[in-house]
Specification:
globular; alpha+beta; Arc Repressor Mutant, subunit A; 227 residues; four-stranded antiparallel beta sheet; binds adenosine-3',5'-cyclic-monophosphate; 9 helices
Length: 227
């Protein structure tokens, strides 16, 4: 059996028996999206969860003033849409294909059937939601109390940890503009730019065409954890 690389590293498949790699994709629908195409919108009825097979997905919400707030960038193996599936409530955020993207969509009735055969699947979903809650708690604390420098360090580390971008000889290239950093960090664009310039002067990153070159992710961790 050839196991899809994305499924092999997906948290949804942790400790499932080998046949799950065949049965779950068979019970799911494979969909492709063009770059920029909406997968679903906040408030839509949600009756499927998605596993990213290829490409990249942006999850975001908008503030009351209409400012976009990026919640996550997701990559092959990552799961989204599980909240509405479990709760039977509308989508809590919007999902857009950031590049050409392929997903597996698993609908609720199929999921509930699979749960009888693979009870561990339910635990894995709980685990995915717990991991998100943990991350959001960290963010809450950060957003409530920390200064802009820490917020921007956090936003850049989040992009790095979510594997946005690719490795280059001198560091990790992150395709991001200052406005997006601001949207992730919850700061103004001017503040994000000021902090990026400070970090550049300290040798933590470089401005390169199309984004940033992160040369020292550890320095960001030190800022974040106050070491
Ligand atoms: P659902 O509410 O069905 O649709 C939007 C999805 O975005 C949601 O399920 C989660 O899968 C995902 N999502 C919501 N909040 C976050 C977050 N803070 N970080 C990462 N993903 C999220």
């Amino acid at each position: 059996m050839v196991v899809d690389e994305a499924l092999a590293k997906s948290p949804l498949f942790i400790d499932l028996p080998p046949e799950a790699y065949e049965v779950i994709p068979q019970a799911s629908t494979r969909w492709s999206y063009r770059k920029g195409q909406k997968i679903f919108q906040k408030g839509d009825r949600g009756d499927a969860l998605y596993i990213v097979l290829k490409g990249e997905v942006r999850i975001f919400r908008e503030s009351m003033e209409g400012r976009p707030m990026i919640l996550a960038f997701l990559h092959p193996g990552d799961v989204f849409g599980e909240m509405s599936l479990v709760e039977d409530r509308p989508r809590s955020a919007t999902a857009v294909a950031e590049t050409e993207t392929e997903v597996l969509a698993l609908f609720r009735d199929r999921y509930l059937n699979l749960l009888k055969r693979f009870p561990r699947l339910g635990h894995n979903i709980a685990r995915i939601i717990a991991a998100r809650l943990r991350e959001v708690n960290d963010e809450l604390l950060l957003f409530a109390f920390e200064e802009a420098r820490v917020k921007v360090a956090f936003a850049l580390l989040k992009l790095y940890r979510q594997r946005r971008g690719k490795p280059r000889e001198k560091g990790w290239f992150i395709p991001v503009v200052h406005q997006e950093i601001a949207n992730l960090a919850g700061t103004s664009r001017e503040t994000a730019t000021r902090v990026v310039h400070e970090l550049r002067d300290q040798g933590v990153l470089e401005n390169v065409p199309g984004g940033l070159l992160l040369k020292d992710p550890e320095a960001l961790e030190k800022i974040l954890y106050g070491l």
